[in-house]
Every structure is written in structure tokens, then in C-alpha cells.
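From the methods appendix. Each design record in this collection lists the discretized structure first, followed by the designed amino acid sequence. Records were kept in a plain field format so they could be parsed without special tools. The example shown here is representative of the layout used throughout.

RECORD:
C-ALPHA CELLS (389 positions):
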């Protein structure tokens, strides 16, 4: 009987002992449980039951120009390039900067309603936009956009990469596809600006040279009309040729007169011959005066004519040079055109790549453990160096 009645008493005493032992164990490890175990459990709860699946769509592209020498390094970018084309590093950086910019986000808001895709109910309250304790402003959206869109250069392959995260595979694909289209449009705009700048400057020079030619021709025509001359040089040459012919004729007549005076001094033809010689002499003097000797002579007008003629020749040469430069500028602009070549088109992901649930829980546990032991060692050091009372 005594044995039978002793068991309940022992059981009654064991429960408080066990309860007190567990409470003491918890009390002794309360800081570890609070700063390590609790965050790990919360992380496991969030990533295991709450965190939404995140899909990633990836695309790759290169910027190529037909006038650049191909790199000798064997990379994926070189393999996908066609003959005579090579990558434009500077233009690729400009495109990637644009993809990460507010302008790209504004275009996405207009074209594909990116705000609604990031705010979908498929995302959990900590992952979707607006984020926990955040607002719905554009600046907040831009910060969130920077987390969901990654645009960078892959130095190993020489290709540019665009990665888009979304809570639905189709949303990730649509945003990535639109970013590629916006990038192609940007490259085309940059080409248009460079092309227009070169062509407009060349056309401006051609217009100036054309106006100069017109002005010089009008001035030359006005001078010809005012001076009653077509080509002073040719006209002076013609006058001099006539004068030279008359001089030869006068010399022949003079020789005939001299012969006649020696042989037949009384010849009645001598006076007529003298008159002819005098008439020819007058004509020679008249022709000479047309060229030189007066203010209205051809020689006095030749200087102004030649100045205008030289101006016209220079203007014509300048026009030819400007036209050649315009043709060269067009060819150069064509050679400097850049093209966005898609290496990998955006994919529609069929499996969520994020979040990495187990890895994230382990990271939380490891980080919390490291911080706990750092704080513990720091506290121990303080206690060891504290003065004893």
C-alpha cells in the first residue's frame, strides 16, 4: 500500500522539476534564442510559406558598327557578329545607362503598365510594390525598378545583359522585350542625330558655296553688261591680231612705196599709195587705243574682269569641294551607323529562380550566429577588463 501511494507523490514532484529545468535552459540561452533562433524561424516562415516566386527573363545583345575593325579576341560577341561588323563599347554603355534610367521607366509605364506588374497581388506584401512602409511615388518606383531590372556588361563574352524580375513569367518577358525595343529605338535615334548633324553641316556649306557662286556670276554678268565686254582677254587678243595684221599690211605698202619712189619717182600711183599707208596707220592707232592708252581701253577693264572671274572660279571650286565633302559626310555617316544585334532574345521563364528559400534561411542563420558571437565576445572582453570591486 505504501508503495502504491508513493507514486503519485513522485509524479507531482517531477513536473515542477522538469518545468523548472526547461525554463532555466531557456533563460540561460535566451539571448541566443532571441537573436539567432528567432530570426531564423521568422526567415524560415517567410521564405517557406509567404515569399512569392520570382521569375527572371534574360536577354543579351551587342552594338555593332560596319566601320570598326574586329577584335582579335575570340569571344561570344565576335562569334555572333557578321563579317565587317564589330561591337561599339561606348554605344553599349549608353544603351545600358538608358535602360537603368528614369526615361526608360517612364516609357515602360506608358507602354506596358510596369507599375501594375510590380504591384500585382501575386507578389507578397514584402516583395511587391509599393514596399512595406513605402509610398507609391515615382521615385519609390524608380528605386524598386533598380532592384527588379539589371542591365550590365558581361566582360567575359562582350555582350550586354538585361535581366528582368517579375512575379509572373509573362510579365518578366513583356518588360524585357519592351526594354530591348526601347534600346533599339535609342540606337536609331543616336544614329539619326549623328547622321543629321554631319549631313546638315555639309548641306549648310554647300548652300553657302552655291550662294557664293550665284553672287559671283551675277557680279560678272553685271560687269560685262556695264562695260560692254564679254571676255576682255579674248577681245584684246582679237584686237591685237587685227592690229598686227594691219602692221604687216602697212609694212608691205611701205616697201612698195619705197621701191616705186626709187624706180619711178613720177609714178601717179605714189600719192594713192601714201594715202593707203596713212589710212592703215590710223586704223592701227585706233586698234591700239581700244586696248590701251585711254580710260575706256580694254586693258583698264581687264583688271576688274579678272578679279570677278577669279572670284567665280574660287566660288565654283568651293562649291565642288563642298559637294564632295557632303558626299563624303554621307558615306562616313553611313559607315558609322550602329546596330543593336540580339544575341539572345528575351525568354519566358517556366521556373522561378528566386527566392532561393533554403539558401536565404541559411544566410539569415549564419549572419545572426556571427553577429551573436561577435557581440558575445565583445561583452566577454568588456567583463574581463572591468575593474573588480
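DESIGN:
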Amino acid at each position: 500500500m505504501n508503495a502504491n501511494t508513493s507514486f503519485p507523490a513522485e509524479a507531482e514532484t517531477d513536473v515542477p522539476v522538469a518545468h523548472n529545468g526547461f525554463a532555466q535552459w531557456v533563460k540561460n540561452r535566451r539571448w541566443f534564442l532571441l537573436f539567432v533562433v528567432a530570426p531564423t524561424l521568422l526567415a524560415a516562415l517567410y521564405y517557406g510559406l509567404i515569399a512569392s516566386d520570382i521569375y527572371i527573363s534574360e536577354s543579351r545583345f551587342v552594338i555593332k558598327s560596319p566601320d570598326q575593325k574586329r577584335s582579335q579576341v575570340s569571344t561570344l560577341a565576335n562569334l555572333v557578329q557578321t563579317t565587317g561588323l564589330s561591337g561599339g563599347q561606348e554605344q553599349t554603355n549608353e544603351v545600358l545607362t538608358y535602360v537603368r534610367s528614369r526615361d526608360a521607366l517612364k516609357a515602360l509605364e506608358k507602354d506596358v503598365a510596369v507599375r501594375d506588374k510590380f504591384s500585382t497581388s501575386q507578389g507578397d506584401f514584402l516583395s511587391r510594390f509599393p514596399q512595406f512602409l513605402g509610398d507609391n511615388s515615382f521615385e519609390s518606383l524608380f528605386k524598386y525598378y533598380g532592384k527588379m531590372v539589371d542591365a550590365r556588361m558581361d566582360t567575359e563574352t562582350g555582350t550586354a545583359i538585361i535581366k528582368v524580375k517579375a512575379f509572373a513569367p509573362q510579365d518578366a518577358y513583356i518588360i524585357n522585350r519592351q526594354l530591348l525595343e526601347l534600346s533599339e529605338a535609342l540606337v536609331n535615334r543616336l544614329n539619326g542625330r549623328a547622321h543629321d548633324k554631319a549631313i546638315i553641316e555639309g548641306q549648310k556649306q554647300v548652300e553657302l558655296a552655291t550662294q557664293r557662286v550665284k553672287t559671283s556670276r551675277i557680279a560678272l554678268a553685271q560687269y560685262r553688261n556695264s562695260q560692254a565686254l564679254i571676255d576682255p582677254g579674248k577681245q584684246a587678243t582679237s584686237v591685237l591680231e587685227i592690229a598686227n595684221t594691219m602692221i604687216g599690211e602697212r609694212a608691205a605698202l611701205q616697201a612698195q612705196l619705197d621701191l616705186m619712189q626709187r624706180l619711178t619717182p613720177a609714178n601717179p600711183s605714189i600719192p594713192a599709195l601714201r594715202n593707203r599707208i596713212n589710212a592703215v596707220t590710223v586704223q592701227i592707232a585706233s586698234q591700239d587705243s581700244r586696248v590701251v592708252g585711254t580710260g575706256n581701253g580694254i586693258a583698264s577693264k581687264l583688271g576688274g574682269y579678272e578679279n570677278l572671274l577669279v572670284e567665280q572660279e574660287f566660288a565654283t571650286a568651293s562649291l565642288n569641294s563642298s559637294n564632295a565633302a557632303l558626299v563624303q559626310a554621307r558615306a562616313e555617316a553611313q559607315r558609322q551607323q550602329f546596330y543593336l544585334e540580339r544575341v539572345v532574345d528575351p525568354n519566358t521563364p517556366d521556373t522561378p529562380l528566386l527566392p532561393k528559400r533554403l539558401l536565404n534561411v541559411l544566410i539569415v542563420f549564419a549572419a545572426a550566429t556571427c553577429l551573436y558571437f561577435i557581440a558575445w565576445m565583445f561583452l566577454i572582453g568588456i567583463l574581463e577588463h572591468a575593474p573588480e570591486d
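APPENDIX NOTE: The chain is about 70% helix and 10% strand.
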